[in-house]
Amino acid sequence: MHSEDWDDVRFVLGVAETGTLSGAARDLNVTHATVLRRTQSFEERHGGAVFERTAQGYRLLPERLRVIEAA
């Protein structure tokens, strides 16, 4: 079992709730780059993408929903 960085989870949840990096950044009072970096860090530790990136924003991949629900 690996040690979870719960702060990264906060960033992933922010993106899941808002659907965008900039929306999560506003809500969390950090920069867009910080949200991107922390989200990518989470994805690397958990074996791949959590979001589908589209022109409209970020959409949680259905097969990764349980990762978010567990958080």
Q: Please give the share of residues in helix.
A: 55-70%
Which ranges are low-confidence, i.e. pLDDT below 50, for 5 or more consecutive residues? Answer: none
**Could you give the order of the helices and strands?**
HHHEEH
How many domains is the backbone divided into?
1
Major beta-sheet overview: 2 strands, antiparallel
CATH superfamily: Winged helix-like DNA-binding domain superfamily/Winged helix DNA-binding domain
Helix/strand/pairing class, anyone?
Answer: mainly alpha
Proportion of residues in β-strands: 5-15%
Radius of gyration: 11 Å
Gross CATH architecture: Orthogonal Bundle
Can you give a write-up of this model?
This protein has helices at residues 6-18, 21-28, 32-45, 65-70, and strands at residues 51-54, 57-60. It has 71 residues and is mainly alpha-helical. The chain has a single domain (6-70), classed as Winged helix-like DNA-binding domain superfamily/Winged helix DNA-binding domain (Arc Repressor Mutant, subunit A, Orthogonal Bundle), CATH 1.10.10. Strands 1-2 form a two-stranded antiparallel ribbon. A hairpin with a 2-residue loop joins strand 1 and strand 2 (57-60). Helix 1 (6-18) packs across helix 3 (32-45). The longest helix has 14 residues, at 32-45. The radius of gyration is 11 Å and the shape is globular.
